[in-house]
Design goal:
Elements: H1 11-27, H2 45-66, H3 71-76, H4 78-88, E1 103-106, H5 112-122, H6 162-175, E2 182-187, H7 194-205, E3 211-217, E4 220-221, E5 224-225, H8 226-229, H9 235-241, E6 245-250, H10 254-266, E7 272-277, H11 300-309
Parallel strand pairs: 1-2, 2-3, 3-7, 6-7
Antiparallel strand pairs: 4-5
Helix pairs in contact: 2-4, 2-5, 2-11, 4-5, 4-10, 6-7
């Protein structure tokens, strides 16, 4: 038998580990405050439209101030995230770790600006903090970090991981006998990833009807059009073949978004995917369908033009 020697124990490192664990435990501590039985946000269609415009303005201001970021995919997802956070989801900004809250998983983590904007407007942290995007020591990093930002459910970075994570969250609800729903927002580009399809297979196998995937199908990824890089069509039929209930919508139409979310709630014994046809850079004319703005922040002059269009 070979015996491996162990070097001196670094007490400082252990103390640091204990500190970090304590920090994380504090972060996920569940508040004893009473939580709502239903969504505390119930915006009208007009209010949803105004909120989506406000969130888009935040995206422009945040990325322009930071000088970096991903405005295009944040703008394309604005209406979907607005519908979820201000109409459809059960959540409580005063108690971010409420056990029965619905979970939103941002698989396309580079679209962090639009999620941060929604969380700030929802009351998870001050709106003024949005100006710290991507700055050193900020809670608002370029990709989401659940140990830093209130309301964030998953730390993101590498694409293709969110659906797998969402399956774990949905299975946990079943094991814990809780009725919360899990929503996962994917990019179309990350549907190039094999892990996404492995997750799709697993979700159908486990009949996770408490899981809804939403694909932000803006048809542009980092370096070009999805049809040229890795054609996803026939997209709907692929999901159906993997055992999912599918629906296709205009991802900028609140009536269609909300109807699809209700359809997902009514679907039993299989997960639902909502294929949301969207426009990259939606709301700003020179950003729409422009590959450049996948990962390029607007200049000061471009930001002024964009904000004028979003008035």
């Amino acid at each position: 038998m070979k015996i491996f020697a162990v070097g001196p124990i670094d007490i400082g490192a252990i103390a640091g580990l204990q500190f970090n664990l304590q920090f994380m435990l504090n972060h996920i501590k569940v508040s004893s405050e009473s939580a709502p039985e239903a969504n505390i946000f119930d915006f009208s269609m007009a209010e949803l439209g105004e909120m989506a415009k406000r969130l888009r303005r935040h995206v422009i201001t945040m990325t322009a101030t930071a000088g970096s970021g991903h405005p295009g995919g944040s703008l394309s997802a604005a209406d979907i995230i607005t519908a979820l956070y201000f109409k459809a989801m059960h959540h409580n900004p005063q108690n971010p770790q409420w056990p029965d809250r619905d979970r939103f998983i941002l698989s396309k983590g580079h679209a962090a600006p639009i999620l941060y904007a929604a969380l700030a407007e929802g009351g998870y942290f001050p709106v003024e903090e949005l100006a710290t995007l991507r700055k050193l020591d900020s809670r608002l990093q370029g990709h989401t970090d659940r140990n830093l930002t209130p309301g964030v459910e998953m730390s993101a970075g590498s694409l293709g991981m969110g659906l797998s994570f969402g399956i774990g969250v949905a299975l946990a609800a079943r094991l814990d006998s809780r009725d919360y729903r899990t929503y996962v927002l994917l990019s179309d580009g990350e549907c190039d990833e094999g892990q996404t399809w492995e997750a799709a297979l697993s979700a159908a196998h486990f009949k996770l009807d408490n899981l809804t995937a939403i694909v932000d199908y803006n048809k542009i990824q980092l370096s070009g059009w999805t049809r040229d890089i890795m054609n996803l069509e026939p997209f709907n039929q692929k999901w159906q073949a993997f055992g999912w209930h599918t629906t296709e919508i205009d991802g900028h139409d609140f009536n269609q978004i909300l109807a699809a979310l209700q359809e997902a709630r009514n679907t039993k014994n299989k997960p639902t995917v909502i294929i949301a046809h969207t426009v990259k850079g939606k709301g700003v004319s020179f950003m729409e369908n422009n590959v450049k703005f996948h990962g390029t922040a607007p200049t000061t002059e471009e930001a002024q033009r964009a904000l004028k269009e979003l008035e």
